[in-house]
Every structure is written in structure tokens, then in C-alpha cells.
Amino acid sequence: MKILFILALIALAVFAVSSIIKERKYTKIIRLVSCSLAVVLSLISAIAAPYLRSLGIGVAVLTAASFGLSIFAQQFKTDAVKSFVKYTANAILVILLLEAVCFNFNSYHLWKGGYDETPLDMSTATLTNVKQNGNSFVTNGESATIEFPKLDQKIGTIQLELKGTSYKTDYSIDFADETNASYYMRSGLVKGSVFNDIKQTKYVVCDFSGKVSKLKINLTELKNNTVTISGITLNADYPSRFSYLRFALILLSVMFVWAFKRSVNFRKPLSAQFKNAKAVTAVIVIVMVALSLLLSSVGLNPKKDFNDPTGNQITKELVDAFESGQVELKDKPGTDLLNMENPYDWSARTEKGVNAKWDHVLYDGKYYSYYGVGPVILLYLPYHLITGHYLASLPGVLLFNTLALIFLGMTFYQLMKRLFKDIPLSMFTAALIMIYASCGVWYCTVMANFYEIAQSSGFCFTVLGAYFLVTSNVIGGDKEPIRPLHAALSSLFLAIAVTCRPTTAIWCVVAVVFIIAGVMKLRRGKSERSAYVKYLCAALIPFVVIGGAQMIYNHARFGSFTDFGIAYSLTINDFTHTEFHTQLSAIGFFDYLFAPPSFTGEFPYVQSTLSTLGVNGYYFEATNNGAGLFYRALPMFFLFGAPFALKYVDKEKRTRTAILFSTVAFVAPFVIIASIWESGYGTRYMMDFAWEMLTCAFLVMFLFYRNLKGKDAKRIYEHLLLIAMFACLFINMGLVFAYWYPGSYVAGHEAMFERFGRMFSMFNT
User: What percentage of residues in the chain have a pLDDT greater than 90?
Assistant: First the structure.
């Protein structure tokens, strides 16, 4: 059967080549014969060899589908449609070869011969913490070993028929082959995990030299895991796995490349097809929201999350405090904490065994929360008043993330419609996908605490504020009248963002700069005085009202209108004595913006290591996922060209454009990065500035593109953006995957993440 399947793959390759090359005299007959052979031989292999069943059926079905599409393509009269269908048919064949050869490489590991399938006799094994139970064996300790001291056999695979009471069982394997006669230097080289529900994990592919004389299987981390061992088999054929989802994702990516490069509609500028641009934006938004919902489902517990008995500062403690008509929390500090000389010193509290509420504010003998009250007043308090139950963190985060994702796409669309409606829809699409991939929202989906509530809600209302700021027409053509209502809504949502996350206050300052730009626009239009009054009242009153309320709240707690209370928090540092050092702030600049990722040969292929730049002091690492935004999204490098792009701006607009652009692209992000040094490095903090900076980078890129001479130069630009988009997806997907898994964040869903990782693991299904 192995020979037949090899012939099937050769026939598939011949079919693919004959389909792609220019048609010649005998091409049709070669295609027909090779296609027929590929289908028939793969079906025979699937029927006769169970371990090839999945792959054989997949090859047969999709080879036939490709042949059918190539015939179907001839029925179309439109050359563009005919070309696309034929392209899709050929793409299926190429991806099919990739699926059969690379993604199922382990299935051919034993095909070179010399490996005899051998079920091992457990009675000949030396067992430690393993006892027989009928026809199987069961572990009874925190670790166990199964040793076969006398073997004389080549080993290409080891099949471990294990099933634990936990979802997975970790193992390591010691061996002695012809290059090393004992376990010395061959101990623990093979490591892995058997997942109960993933068949492929039960097979270990071995690359030993010559015959193996000794073999020891070590089962580890068994404290809460009792493992039943049904058998161990040497040289069992590794099962193939044809992933239709993987195939579909790769095919969609290839079809996107065709649309980007050759589709007439995708090549047209936005101005010629605003309806299509809206439709594309809507599709991308729906996909991103769906991905957010899928990730959030990992951490959601519907039975508990909508009736949370415990809660945290935002979901319960502040809710209870406000319902009681007070600003301090209802819990009272213990006398041991109040009697401390310095209760803000974490080490002192730990040494004395003093109990304190973590990351709460202690001020004047009372507990407070320095986290914003925006999500409390807008969501968690009303939910409790209406239902009588507490809402958990994650449903709220999911709601804020969903709103943010929707309006992020709408904001970018409106911005491009006003400033760059001459760019092709293809470039707009690639840019929007990159903004979504790099915005950082994916780090606040699976698991949520009050940190993620503050981050997601601040992000949400900042995006809402940006959308209404753009649609207020303070920027764009002078012929478009300013819309005071949208200016008011922009200020309202940006002010609310500050009540969610104080760091976003810098974007309110930026908004004031844009409000001034609106005044200048009214002046250029020689508007009446009433228009100035109406606009300024609409734009500034929300800041005054909500900002004033926040200041009153601050004063009621800490006797200061501008003190949010972070200095009095009981957390990683004594912030009452923390000193600012330029080097500590520089760590954030390097890791958020410029830290390069490293690449490996194993999924998720991307690794990151947080760099502290050799600073000789304490810097908190909230999450070690440091890869700079410039590498997450390569068009960020266009920011360095911003000064040179100004020459393409009309002279009378250059100063105004430079000021507005600089505040968004540089000043605000740099202030944010510099200001969060006390909190250390947390990947989710990218949500505060990433999408704004990347959007500005695209503005520079599109300005250069607009002024390129010649179609060839523009095509090069477009292709570079396409490559950058796939690199962006690749890097960000790897970083997000590594952020959540492995770890405790995805408890109960490890198998789902493991399957996803294996789906994209080349040479390892």
C-alpha cells in the first residue's frame, strides 16, 4: 500500500505541474491520466491502510474537485472569472501537495524500512509506581517509570496507549542506542505530552541511531493524575490527518493573494466603490468579532459569570460601595496593617504575615480602588441593580472588546474615505487587517480580571471617541461642514475613557488639539460667531462635566482633584517611594516598539524575550511577550519617513498637518509609554497606543504611494504591503498563541489550543 500511495503522490505532482504549465500537445491526456491515477490509487490506499485513510480520502476528493473546477472554468465567458476559477483549481493542487507531504511528514517516517511493529510485553518491564489492574496498568505515585532493559530493535515510533484522569500526561523517554550503550547522555532527550483526546499525541516519532538496547519511559507530574496504561507498541504506523480547516485557511489566503493582485474591483480606488469598501470592512469586522468571541469562550462560564458570587474591585466591591452611598470600599483594613510603619512595602507585609487586599488602595485607614469607575457606572452597577446578581469580568470585557472592534473598522474606513479615497481597495483591506492584528485586544480575551476590564473599556471608549472625532469633519476637506453633535460625542466618549483608564487622558489632550483645528477650519470658512459657540460648547462641555465629576470623585477620596490614588496601592512596589529613572522608562520604549522577535522551527515559530536593557534596578514584568510594534507590523517603519512626506502636503496645510500628525503618532504614544513605567511591562498596554501609531504609519505610506510615478513602482508598493500583511498575521498569531498557551489561562481548553498548534506545525501533525 505504501508503494501505491507514493505513486498516487507522484501522479498528483504530475497533475499539478501539467495543470500549471502552458498547455501543449499531450497536456490534456497527461492531466487526465495523472488525475485518474491520483484519485484511484489514493482511494485504494485509504481503504487498505487505516493509518492513511484520512489523507487518502482527502487527496482523492480534492484532486477530483480540482479537475472538475478546471473543466467548469471553461464554461465562463468572462476572462476574469475563468482565470480565477482556474487559479483556484491549481491552488488546490499545490496546497494538496503541501498537506500530503509537509503537514503529514511523520506518516512516512517508517517507510524507509527495517522497522518491525512490536507490542511490548509489560511483564518484561521494570515498573516503578505502576501496578497491574486486569489487562492494563495503573500509576500510583507522583511519578512513574516503565523500563525495558533488554531490547535489540530499531525504533522509529513508540505508541503510548495512555489515558489519565487529567486531560494530558507528560512524559520523557531515556534510551540507549548504538551510539551510546547506556542512558548516560541520552536521558530525557525525548519529551512530550499525551492528550487523552488527540490521537497523534500518543505516537512518539524517534530518530535513534541503529538498534535500541534499553528504553525507559518516565511519566511525570502525576500528583493529580492517575494514568491507565493499555499498552506500548514499537514501530506502529503514525496516523495521517487531513485537516480540511487548515486546507481551507491556506486556500482562502491564496485566493486573497489573487484578489489583491488581479481582481478588478480590488484594484479600483475607494472613491469608485464605497459600497464594496463598506462590505469589505463589514466582513473583516465580523471575522474579528467572531475570533474575539471564540477566544473569549475559552474563559467564559455562563453558569457563574452572570451570577458571580465573588467578584473583584470593579465587578463587586465598587458596586457595593456605590450602592451604600460611599466612595471607600466596605471592607475594612486590619489593625495589623494599619499599625505598620510602612504598609505599602510588600516585603514588610510578607515578612510580618500581614494580610492586605492586593492591589487595593490604602489611604487614611480605609480601602479604596484606583481603578476607573467608568465600567462600574456604565455596566456593572446597573447590572446588579437590575438583576440582583454580579456580572463577572469577562462578559464585560467581551462587550467592550466587541464595541471596540466594530468601531475600529468604522474609524479606519471613515479616515480613509476622507483622506485617501484614491488608494486601491486591496491596500485598504491589507492595512485594516494589520491594524486589527496588531492592536493588542487579543491579550484581553481569554482571561479577564479588573486589569483587563480597565484596559478593554478604556480602549473601547478611546476608539469610539476617535470615530466621532473623524466623522465630526474637523479634519478633511474644508467643504465638509463641522458636525457639532459628533464633536460632542467624541469628547463624551474620550472623557468616559479616562474614567475607565486614566492613562487615556493623553488622548483627551490630543482631542483638544483637533478641536482647535476645527476652530481654524471654521475661521477659514468665515463662519458666524454662533457657529463657533455651538461647536465649542458641544466639544468642550462633555470634558468639563465628566472631567469635573472625576475630579470631585478624586477629591472625595484623597483630598486632591488630580490624585487618582495609584501611589497608595498595595502592590508590587511602594509607589510612595518609587523614583523615576530614564532607563526604566526606556525599557518600555524598546520592548513596546523596537524589540525584535526571534524565530524557531516549532510552532508557534515566534518567540519573544523581554529585555531590561541591563538596567540595575527593579522593573516589573507583568507579561513576558515583548516584541516591538515595528516588527509586529512592518509598515510602522514608514513613521521614520513622516518628515519627508510633508513635501507632498500643500504648503498652507503643512504646519497644521505636522502638528496634528505628531500629536497622534509620536507625542501621545511616547507620553503613554513613558508614564506606565511604574506598572512595568504588560503586553496588553499596547492597546493604549498601538492602533493609533500604526494608522499614522499607513497615512505616511499612502501619501508616498499617492505620489509615486509609474504603475510598476505602485505595484511594488502594493506587493510589499501584501507581504507585510502576512508577516504581521504570522508574527502576531504566534505571539498571541504563546501568550495564552501553555499556561494556566486556558484551563480546560488545552486540547483545543494543542490541536490548533498542531494544525500549523509543519512536519508534525
Answer: 77
